[in-house]
Write a structure and sequence with these properties.
This protein is an all-beta fold. Helices cover 0% and strands 52% of the residues.
Length: 124
């Protein structure tokens, strides 16, 4: 069992920044990967970024490349998503998820545990 809690969402102006946190507890996740997904009302959940718990491999969706940065602090069991140059189209509920695929996974079905989400709203 893994529990995930997202935080850091809020309301920002276009061009602003937010840092989301995903704190994990419970089962040891040293071999896992962590992904960030987002979902806007009426739209399908989409992949944002992912990182392995060990190693330095990261991956980003085309829509956020160059603007978002994923990182981790293993000692704190926390993964971060630094979001810069935010656009109104980034508005969504952001979720973190943990899975055990041996590769950087970008499909929601590749993840086992999910957080409750944190809302990000970017105004124009």
């Amino acid at each position: 069992q893994v529990q995930l809690v997202e935080s850091g969402g809020g309301l920002v102006q276009a061009g602003g920044s937010l840092r989301l946190s995903c704190a994990a507890s419970g089962r040891t996740i040293s071999s896992s990967g962590v992904g960030w997904f987002r979902q806007a009302p009426g739209k399908e959940r989409e992949f944002v970024s992912a990182i392995k718990w060990s190693g330095a491999t990261t991956y980003y969706a085309d829509a956020v490349k160059g603007r978002f940065t994923i990182s981790r602090d293993n000692a704190k069991n926390t993964v971060y998503l630094q979001m810069n140059s935010l656009k109104p189209e980034d508005t969504a509920n952001y979720y973190c998820a943990v899975g055990w695929r041996p590769y950087i996974a970008s499909q929601a079905t590749d993840y086992t545990y999910w957080g409750q989400g944190t809302q990000v709203t970017v105004s124009s």
